[in-house]
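Morning F.,

Quick status update on the modeling queue. The single chain you submitted on Monday has been processed. Sequence for confirmation:
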Amino acid sequence: MIPKLDRRQPLHFIGAGGIGMSALAGILAERGFLVSGSDPRPSPVLERLRTAGVRVFQEQTAATIAAVIAGMDRSGSGAGGSPLVVISSAVPAANEELAEARRRGLAIVHRSDVLAALINAQPSIAVAGSHGKTTTSTLIATLLEAVGEDPTAVIGGIVPAFGSNGRHGQGRLLVAEADESDGSLVKFNPRLGLLTNVELDHTDHYPDLASLVATLQRFASGCTTLLANRDCPVLREHFQAASWWSTRNGETVDFAAIPLEERGDGTLATWYEHGVALGSMDVPLPGRHNLSNSVAAMAACRLEGVSFEALRQAVAGLRPPGRRFDCRGLWHDRAIVDDYAHHPSEVAATLAMARLMVDSGRSPLPLVPRRLVAVFQPHRFTRTAQFLDDFAAALTHADAVLLAPLYAAGEAPMAGISSPALGEAVRALAPDLPVAVAASMEALAELVASGTGPGDLVLAMGAGDVNSLWERLGALDQRERPSALVA
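Structure tokens below.
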């Protein structure tokens, strides 16, 4: 149910600290809505919400719902003291707070319904696809802000230019990341829809590629205009876009950037529109996948009327969102980088970008790395089972591989699916490649300490808690190191 948002009706977000929930809560608070939320895990995101005026509860109990209603009654706010309760797919049906909201007969909507209400209410750009959604939507919002468009943004990652994943702008445009993982993006009707690529993922929701394609086709049918990546074979075969972009061919598409020089710290390319070269551009994000994301972002802005010259200047300030090749710092002369890659194609692309830094001798990191150490955490049993061999093949492009325990994300274990099983698959493909499997996250930090050296690029990839590696390495400096535990 897509709600009609009314400032007279408060909103309460169960799980307000989630990356998608917090963006919506913050924007609505800045738009003058009375917003509250709950989340048991302290985080900087929750502190930002409090600063924006959101009332945040730490407990997710029946008492929280009672307190929200009582607080509204005392303030005289709200439509009869009945808030609109917002949940995400991460909130289990047995959640006590949710159960109390149901018992009281409160209106309950999914976060995608609230996002749809925002997207459908103003000219919007919605970015969908299997890979690159967060980066591409971040780049679009960053470019629009740089050229004075002052966009609203709802992104699934921290946008460096804003210091947040959500932003309430005064301009005409809204930029949103449209997540396909649960199929809810079919509710969105943006003026411009953008498809980055399509590849089977989220096998807990989609049994096969055809079902994913069907869902994205429904999304595409709800867009006034569709912009898509011509380099993706699935998009070419199954979608009819009004405009196409490419990084391979500048002659037969609407927008293209063809590389002239690919370096470890960026790409110099020639920009084409409808087969005509308009000039060169220097993208400060290395890797062909980041070039594609940048072309998509520039193409979206061009379709919204932004001049190429303005964009060419703004491109120099592009930075990736948080957890996308995010350098946390140097630890004993090792560059520790955090990345959200959790699909084989993402792992392969991220490793290729890192390899470019090693081979080219140019890098945006505090050091030019001499060796590439892949630290990978498999995410979900279903995904690991589906792509075990593909993950193994991707990881063979590192100089050493360290595996964290599989992050279940609430899934039940599957026989024969584990980090040790992935380690064996890597060894089968590359017998001489050093591979080690940690029995715990603490042991993983120990393995990094003992198995890497100065000048190494330690690339931690995964959608689970592998992003805690930087903090765990710091903790090692506070105590005497015991021997690593290896499974």
